[in-house]
Amino acid sequence: MERKVNYLGISSEIMSNSGHQLQEKLALLCHTIKDEKIGIMQIEPQNRDYLLPIYGYIGKAGDSIVSPSNFILPQLSLEQLLQPIILDHFLTQFFTLFDYQQQVSQSLSKGALIKFHSRYKYLIMAYSQVAYRELGRYIANLSDEISLDEIASKYQQKLMRALSVAPNREGQTNALMHMAGYFKRDLSSQQKQEMSQTILLYRQGVIPFSKPYNLLQYWLSVYPDDYLIHQRYFSPYPQAFDYLREQL
């Protein structure tokens, strides 16, 4: 099946009217987006509310557009490219939506939706415990009396609403602790204590997110678990932006 073209919308006003550092960051983002086979669509100010097939938007501060599909559209101002937490949040939203379009919308089935949700379980948990439980119940109770299109549309709306606010340290800690539980039979008491202590130090703001994240990935490489390996928590966006984890 031929895949639908997806786009990142960028205001034409910011393509050249910004400083060198911002242009450098924007160029990296555009290059990475194109490597993922996603198009870049320049949007003129007078056409911001036109119904375009875009799945994210970058504009001036205070600039925004309305999504034509009744879901929360990932949006970022140019200046926020220099703010790691906000950029990480935007990239996670954008590439989650892109992945959903490719893996679910392009070949819609209950199986595809269930598989997608399974891969995003811990990412959703990190963002919102409430949304994690709500989406889990939604997937567990799919009705044959409702059309798949409606089911998928509602799931997408719920998913993007769940990702609408960046995760805090408490949410990340909860997800990390749950995933650390997969190694309880493999690690020694000292190793488990180190894992828990590293996660708690992150929660307290003593160390960056990358410390527990990298430690968890290390143990996953030593004791592979197929379910965890395929979690999008570990790859919410392309590797070009992995440096952001050092700054969260």
TrEMBL record:
InterPro entries: DUF1722 (IPR013560)
Domain (DUF1722) ranges: 121-238
Source superkingdom: Bacteria
Pfam entry (one): DUF1722
Name under which the protein is recorded: DUF1722 domain-containing protein
Lineage: Bacteria, Pseudomonadati, Pseudomonadota, Gammaproteobacteria, Enterobacterales
